[in-house]
Design goal:
Elements (H helix, E strand, L loop, with lengths): L5 H17 L4 H8 L6 H9 L7 H16 L4 H16 L8 H10 L4 H15 L2 H7 L28
Helix pairs in contact: 1-5, 3-4, 4-7, 5-6
Length: about 170
């Protein structure tokens, strides 16, 4: 009888569990699965990536949906999602969604060099900081093009440059 190391058994089990849970899911089915019992794994990962105390969970869920739509257009997204979910579970040593925030951060750090992580990070970075609620929390007033730009709306008060002669 062949012996198998506990670590190999756990990693293999986590990989199979991730594959079984995610295999063959379309974007909508994945959204429902990620959202089962009130938990959205992608939103939870985005919380880990962009932790802001004053951002409501609903904003993270909206961003997760935008990221999910964007990434589901990629041909390799189903495979990346499976690999990423399995890697998160394996790095955590338990189902990732069962962990507290600190353990989720550590697991995310372990997989930070993977294509899955980089893909999610890049898409979420754009979508998160393009969200109007986040704009207000970080002090960004939004687009100024519709209002003639920033220069003559209180942003022309540079007092550290010398005045130029007319």
């Amino acid at each position: 009888m062949a012996t198998i190391a506990r670590r190999d058994f756990l990693l293999t089990g986590a990989a199979f569990a991730g594959l079984a849970a995610l295999a063959g899911c379309s974007g909508e089915e994945q959204a429902r699965q990620d959202n089962s019992e009130g938990f959205d794994a992608l939103a939870a990962l985005i919380v880990v990536l962009f932790p802001h105390q004053n951002v409501n969970q609903s904003v993270y869920e909206q961003v997760a949906e935008l990221v999910r739509r964007k990434l589901s257009a990629r041909e390799d997204w189903a495979r990346l999602r499976q690999e990423g979910r399995a890697a998160l579970d394996a790095a955590a040593g338990a189902p990732w969604e069962s962990l507290e925030l600190e353990a989720r951060v550590k697991a995310a750090e372990v997989i930070s060099k993977t294509r899955f992580f980089k893909s999610v990070y890049q898409a979420a970075l754009f979508e998160f900081y393009s969200h109007p609620v986040v704009w207000t929390l970080v002090g960004y007033p939004g687009s100024s093009a519709e209002q003639g730009g920033y220069l003559h709306r209180g942003f022309d008060d540079i007092d550290w440059l010398p005045e130029t002669a007319p």
